[in-house]
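Hey, can you fold this one?
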Amino acid sequence: MMFIFGFFLSCFNGIWAYGYLCWACGDGWRRSGSGNLLVTLFSLFIAAPVLAFSVIMPFFGGWIVVPIMQKYAWDHYCDSFPAFAILDARSYNDPSYTVNVAYFFMNQPSAGSPTQLFTYEIANTDGGDNWRFSLRSWDTAQSSIPLDFYPTLQAVHYNFYQLTIDGNCTLSANASAAGNTVDNTATVPCMTGTFDPSAHLHFNITSAVPLNSTLVSSYPAAVPNATSNLTIRDSNWDFGKYAPALALQELQPDGQLGHLILKTTVTAPHDSTELKVCVAGPEGRQGAAVQPEVFAPLGLVLMRQADYALYSTQPSSD
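Sure. Predicted structure:
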């Protein structure tokens, strides 16, 4: 509909442009040298650019402006956030064993030079209602990851029958290993909650996610519990024929929306299988970017991005 309207508007503007050119090039102006010069200068430097814009942009603007804005959004919309994730889903023509993954980056040393940290994957663990969003690989040396960006929550489980979530954290098992790359680790439950994946997305999460410097011997006494209610402003986020789009915020006790946890931006230019998500995390908490308020919704968003990627890359039936 937009392109149809743009076509007729371009035609209408084209008629006006043609009329102006006929008037500007008419014989009447040629009897006065100064008048002819004035019209020529006005036509070249003012009228011609305006008329060209009014004829071209209504119909062709979508193909010209949208890619430019999409590229800018992809490159810069997350610059003010401490971290971001790129959700990379399987396309229609990819092998069935291709894994849907989320690549995590921190905007350090700068937003223009982000550092890729680790990768998570989403998997249907039983072919039914149970899914798992878990650590797949480290993309930089673990010892070089800042404490605030090191994920100890390394597995989130979703039960779509009961609409419950839970998660496990991985901790160092001895003092000499704390905060370093080690094989001597222990896994402990550190998150529970419920979620509603319907149009009005909602999460209720109770967690005690430790930093990587926490020893398993001191857990959970050394880590306070945190409870969060998260939701979105608009009653829709999952559009089927489009990539998921949401801004997830903390729901305050008075029912007002508060701190922004994460928000989706755009799919990658020329690649609808990738979706960029800006990550802030819960306000006032150390290690905010790797807390369950980030991982729990992100796994769900990756599931829906995977559905959209298959839809958007399937061959045309024409």
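The chain is about 30% helix and 35% strand. Let me know if you want another pass with a different chain boundary.
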